[in-house]
Structure formats: structure tokens, C-alpha cells
Amino acid sequence: MTKIVILTGAGISAESGLGTFRDEDGLWAQHRIEDVATPEGFARNPALVQAFYNARRAQAAEARPNPAHVALARLEAEHEGEVLVITQNVDGLHEAAGSRNVLHMHGQLDRALCHACGHRWPAPDEMRIEDACPDCGRCQTRPDVVWFGEIPYGMDRIDPALVEADIFAAIGTSGNVYPAAAYGQHARRMGAHTVELNLEVSTASRDFAEHRRGPASEVVPLWVEEILKG
To answer: What are the protein's UniProt keywords (predicted)?
Structure first.
């Protein structure tokens, strides 16, 4: 049976109202990445980092899945083989649409992490620097998201999945963030048919055998329909 591995990036959630790094008027435009998305930034100003992710968490809580998320959930439900979604996104829109086999390689906004002991738990709507870890009691809680300079989650699952994939698709990714930017090249080298579904040409477009251009809410449902029809 055909095994499908799908990498999703910020572009798939943009149509649900969640901003990307490159938006000129979104949350990211108001802060330097070094200040809100690195361990060093958290060490310098944890209150700023907590406020930034509280705003992102509130924004994500209001977002709803778009037709691209729904189509991928349908693919998982109706395809006879395995479908794995590897997402760079920290929102829960894939799960809200019905996808179950989802790997959040960059963590999740709705999870909290103790920077001191590594304990994880469901995050409250608003996190504060004085919140104590429920396990060790230290006040070093942070969002359970992977920052620049940290190792993504699930690498022990991702590498074998790329080797075994018959089809590898990248949806809404910029091709700028590693290691995910190299997944298309790796999967293609391992024999997978590779397809990029994106609004525009990405840095990694050359690594894909097939390209679909357009909004994710339009091109993804059409692609899923083709896959399911065989």
C-alpha cells in the first residue's frame, strides 16, 4: 500500500488567519526572531517571550481549519495506506480538522515545558514567568515550541518515514528552515515521488519532481481528490 508523507508549513495555516514570519503587519513583524524564538531571548526577557506566545496562543485558539486541513484529514481517513503529516506549525488545526497521525516537529502552542527539568503539560490560555512547574516546582516554564538553535521533535520517526515514503508532499513551506527544507531532496533520493504545493516558488522547489501552484485551500483538495481516485 502507498505510504504518503506530507510536510506542512505556515502557508497552510495562513488562510485560517495565522500569520507567517514574512507577514508585514503580523505578530512576527513586531519583534526580532532573536528576542522571541531563541533560548537566549527567553533568558534575556522571559516576560516578553511569554507575552508573545500568549498572543499567538489566543490567535490560534480562534482559528479554524480551512479546506486544505480538511482535505488532508480526508486523505488519512480514506487512503488505504498510511498517511503521516509532519507539520512545522505549532497550531492544532490539523487535529481540529480530523487528522490523527500528526507529528509536530516544532512543538505545540497548547503545551507547556519546564526549561529546568523538561516536564511537559497542557498550557493554560495565558502563561506567566512566575508559573511553577507542576513536577519540579521551579519557575522556568516556557511554551513547548522548538526555537532556533534547538533540535526539532520526532527526528527518530521522521527519518525512517522519509526513507519509506512512496509519495512525499510539501505544502505551504518556504524551504528556508532546516532540517525540513532538505526533506524533499532526501525523499526523492530514496525513491519517493515528490510534489510541492505552494503559493509561489520556494527555495527548495528544485528538489521536487512535481509542482502545484496556488492557495493551499484550492490546490490541496484537488490533489487529494486525484490521489483518492487513483
So the answer is: Cytoplasm, Metal-binding, NAD, Transferase, Zinc
Which DSSP letter does residue 204 get?
Answer: T
Provide the CATH topology of domain 19-62+110-145. Answer: SIR2/SIRT2 'Small Domain' (3.30.1600)
**Cβ pair 179, 204 in contact under 8 A:** no
Q: Is the pLDDT of residue 22 over 70?
A: no
- 69-89 pLDDT, tens digit per residue, is 999 999 999 999 999 999 999
Class of CATH domain 1-16+65-106+152-230: alpha beta
Q: What is the pLDDT of residues 139-179, one digit of tens each?
A: 999 999 999 999 999 999 999 999 999 999 999 998 888 89
Please give the angle made by the CA atoms of 187, 189 and 194, to the nearest 5 degrees: 45
Binding residues are: 9-28, 53, 56, 88-91, 114, 117, 133, 136, 172-174, 216
Side chain identity, residue 222: L
The residue from 69, 94, 106, 186 that is catalytic is: 106
Can 106 be counted among the known catalytic residues? yes
The domain ranges of the chain are: 1-16+65-106+152-230, 19-62+110-145
